[in-house]
Amino acid sequence: MSIRNRTTKLIARRHDLNYFKRLSPIRAWQFYLAGAALVAAILWFGTTKVAHGDTAFSSGPISSSHAVFGQRCELCHVASITNTGFTRDAHVPDSACLKCHAASAHHAAEAISTESCSSCHTEHVGAMHLASTADRGCTQCHANLETRTGVLRVASHIANFATEHPDFRPLRTVSIAERTAAFALKFTHAEHMKAGLRGPTGPVSLNCQSCHVSALTADGRQGPNLAPVTFDKDCRSCHALEFDQHIQQAAPHGDVKLAQAFVMKSITDYAQAHPEVVAAEIRQPPAEPLLPGQLRMPQPHTTAEWIANREARAEVILWRGRCALCHRDLHNPAPALTETQVTLMPASYTGTSAFATLPQIEPAHQPLKWYKDAVFSHAAHQAEECVECHAAALQSQKGSDLLMPSIATCRRCHDGMSSPQGPPVKIGHAESGCFLCHVYHGPDQDHLASDHTLAQLTSR
User: Fold this and answer.
1) Could you tell me if residue 20 is left (phi over 0), alpha (psi between -120 and 50 degrees) or otherwise beta?
2) What are the tens digits of pLDDT across the range 233-282?
3) What CA–CA distance (Å, rounded) separates 414 from 410?
4) Which secondary-structure segment (H or E) carries 262?
């Protein structure tokens, strides 16, 4: 039996060298299916583009403030020409934002660098407010702050509010002298918070909202700030500027010259309208005790003398009784009269040299806000009781007391456990982002200055 001779050449002849030139059933179906998928993708892309425009390829829904633009993606994603051809910018350039928003750079003369608008205001993340920016936009500079000039007006290291933020500047820098000059009032919160105060119709008990109410905006809505306390709105009902038992009207507040003119005219008009009362008091002056150290004026014999006596007494009641209760007279440092002393003022007051001139009332410059570089909204905190933050008001004995809560009070709620870009807000843990209190572009840069009308922006 002969041995079979199997050479390499004979073995190679067993393979079909044209195998790859012919499609097998499996490879044929793979090719057909791949081609069909490509055609379907092209058809889907084209029909979606025609039906929905650029929104079909959007990264997500736009914010509620920009919803008015609808599907006009090109208003922000400005078309440009690059080295690779015609394209549409993925990142919105600042020039697109500045077409509508009048916003200046943040401390342009001092900052080392300025970030783009889209680096802080992230779109296509839902209906959240674009002003609710993440802290990283601020801390990328303020965590290790450097300036061109090298002079810092703020802390050089602020990484977050909950643990690495200094106490509020007014509590750190405002002196007692500055506070006294700002208020210039002899006022105590503790006295006004007592129960059973004498009111216009009987005992009253005041609370914080009796005087401190939210200011209204131009459209009549509740604003973030408190309205300033004024005499006519908040004080007159209890502290009426009455000056004579014959005159029902109270003296005006705010200008001593106007008050004096009102007193003189009111008493003169009363004397002309009630000559019988004047004649009776000339015959028999009211028996009223004198103040210590004062002398009784001669008994009036004419209407002119009666008017002069009543005017002198009225001025003492106003200047040393009513006005001096809260204000300091720079001409006459004498203490204010008590309510009992004012009631027992003599009808024929002598009028000493101390009252020869009008009092010079030290002006009270009530500050509308102590924050110079930050904002705060009382309306957003109206669910809290005032004393939760202003506990010191219950014991405050001086008008110069600065009753602003410290940062520790705010951190009880704003503890860094919640953020707009982080997990959902937890109950009892308020947001503590930088944007809540600080305005990046400045307080006067929050308006629109569009180069186009709203109709041009929202129409094709």
Assistant:
1) alpha
2) 999 999 999 988 899 999 999 899 999 999 999 999 999 999 999 999 88
3) 6
4) helix 256-273
Predicted structure pTM score: 0.68
Question: Domains of the chain: which residue ranges?
Answer: 25-57, 169-229+366-405, 256-355
Cα–Cα distance measured from residue 304 to residue 89, given in angstroms and rounded to the nearest whole number: 88
* Distance from C-alpha of 269 to C-alpha of 263, rounded to nearest angstrom: 10
Residues 214-230: pLDDT tens digits? 888 888 888 888 888 89
CA distance linking residue 308 with residue 304, whole number of Å: 6
Q: Among candidates 267, 262, 276, which has minimal Cα distance to 305?
A: 267
Tokens at 381, concatenated: 């905190």
Q: Are 252 and 260 in contact (CB under 8 A)?
A: no
Q: In angstroms, rounded to a whole number, what is the distance separating the alpha carbons of residues 222 and 377?
A: 10
> Would you give the end-to-end CA distance of the chain in angstroms?
94
Dihedral angle at the C-alpha atoms of 185, 189, 193, 199, nearest 10 degrees? 0
